[in-house]
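Before relying on records like the one below, remember that each one covers exactly one chain. Contacts with other chains, cofactors or solvent are not represented anywhere in the record.
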Amino acid sequence: MAVKKKGASVQHKVAAENRKARHAYEIGDTMETGVMLQGTEVKSLRDGRSNIAESYASIENGELWLINSYIPTYDAASRFNHAPRRPRKLLVHARELAKLHAAVQRDGMTLVPLKLYFNDRGRAKLELAIAKGRKAHDKREADKKRDWQRDKARIMRERG
């Protein structure tokens, strides 16, 4: 039995990542949620061809759902396959759901999936963020700031 050291980083197998989200949204709090999947969806996720770039989370009838995520069909499953774009239930505690519901009620806030991965126990997890959409001029400002930080780091490296 391996003992995990305190503060040691855990490697996750990333199945899908939403890279555009950090550009298009101002990311606030993030949380890890479970995902209710069918067997063929898990097999297909392990192949790493899924996409969550156009998806979002929504609270409907007191439950949290992942809408418009794409998990391709698993070829070896034949007729027992799943629908690629079906809504998938996200698993959170009631207190976390209430917190998310309150955040979405505020002006301009949305629930954006950032990463779909397998944790160290092999369970599919989704990193969900409470985010606020950026305007075009905010995106340009963020790009300028990121470029300046990169240039500053390069200058500091060259000077020693």
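The chain has one domain: 13-134.
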